């Protein structure tokens, strides 16, 4: 029943997206921008899509539905449609217990920045993370954060030995399903662009999703990243892994 409700929400969210238009000979899978960059965005955060993508075609390939999970653990769905030689894409992502619209507009370029815009910090710090995605009670969860110049690390390589940014202020906030603070940490990246934190999952802690917000900031820039972590309850007595 829950899946049917969610499916209904998706259909209602995109019901107006299927109007009749004239189509051109365009291959959406080679023209959809986020498939080329590997990233999808909300107004405030960027997410990296995983390689596990489910694709369905409608109207003889003129409408493409794609769904999957981001590397950070959040489910998303997008619809792309060919309209007059252009591909229009809409989408939503499920974060923190609610659906959020995805933005597929190009970010403002340096040439289009006005004097008023310069008062705000640029969102141009690359945040890469290795972290414990699934953790049992009475275990530690770790988060390793690296900051890079995105122009020097276009492949999002966590282990790249150049292009990293030191002395970047890092804030980590972990919230439970009631949006209450579970863990927080602050500090600066070292000479390798690295900041690390870890926290303990108490005994008998229930199974739930933790939302991790990472903010990186210096004098000129401020960027953020959202992650999802799963607590799995008590370790199985037979040593088997959780489903």
Structural description of this entry:
- The protein is mostly beta strands.
- The chain has 2 domains: 100 residues; 111 residues, Immunoglobulin-like (Sandwich), CATH 2.60.40.2550.
- The chain is 9% helix and 44% strand.
- Strand 13 and strand 14 form a beta hairpin.
- The radius of gyration is 20 Å and the shape is globular.
Gist?
Helices cover 9% and strands 44% of the residues.
What is the topological layout?
Blueprint: H1 2-13, H2 28-31, H3 33-37, E1 39-41, E2 46-58, E3 63-70, E4 75-83, E5 86-95, E6 98-101, E7 126-131, E8 134-135, E9 140-148, E10 169-175, E11 181-188, E12 194-200, E13 208-217, E14 222-231
Parallel strand pairs: 8-14
Antiparallel strand pairs: 1-2, 2-3, 3-4, 4-5, 5-6, 7-9, 9-12, 10-11, 10-13, 13-14
- N-to-C SSE series? HHHEEEEEEEEEEEEEE
User: How do the strands of the widest beta sheet line up side by side?
Assistant: 1-2-3-4-5-6
- Looking at CATH, which topology of the largest domain would you report? Immunoglobulin-like
State the secondary-structure class.
mainly beta
Q: Estimate percent helicity.
A: under 10%
Based on DSSP secondary structure assignment, what is the total number of beta strands?
A: 14
Helices, by number, come to: 3
Distance between the termini: 21 Å
Number of domains: 2
Main sheet overview: 6 strands, antiparallel
Gyration radius, rounded = 20 Å
The CATH architecture category of the largest domain equals Sandwich
Shape category: globular
**Beta-strand residue percentage:** 35-45%
CATH class of the largest domain: Mainly Beta
Average pLDDT metric? 81
- Quaternary state reads single chain
């Amino acid at each position: 029943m829950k899946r049917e409700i969610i499916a209904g929400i998706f259909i209602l969210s995109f019901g107006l997206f299927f109007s009749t238009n004239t189509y051109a000979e365009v291959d959406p899978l080679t023209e959809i921008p986020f498939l080329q960059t590997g990233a999808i965005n909300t107004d405030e955060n960027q997410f990296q899509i995983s390689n596990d993508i489910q694709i369905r075609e409608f109207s003889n390939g003129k409408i493409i539905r794609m769904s999957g999970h981001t590397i950070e653990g959040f489910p998303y769905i997008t619809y792309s449609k060919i309209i007059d030689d252009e591909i229009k894409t809409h989408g939503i992502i499920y974060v923190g217990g609610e659906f959020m619209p995805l933005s597929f507009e190009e970010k403002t370029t340096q040439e289009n920045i006005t004097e008023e815009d310069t008062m705000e910090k640029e969102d141009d710090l690359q945040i890469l993370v290795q972290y414990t995605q699934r953790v049992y009670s009475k275990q530690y969860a770790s988060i390793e954060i690296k900051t890079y110049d995105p122009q020097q690390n276009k492949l999002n390589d966590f282990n790249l030995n150049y292009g990293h940014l030191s002395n970047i202020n890092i804030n980590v906030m972990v919230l439970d399903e009631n949006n209450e603070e579970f863990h927080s940490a602050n500090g600066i990246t070292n000479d390798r662009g690295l900041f690390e934190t870890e926290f303990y999952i108490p005994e008998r802690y229930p199974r739930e999703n933790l939302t991790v917000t990472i903010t990186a900031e210096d004098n000129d820039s401020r960027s953020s990243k959202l992650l999802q972590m799963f607590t799995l309850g008590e370790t199985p007595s037979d040593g088997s892994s959780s489903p």
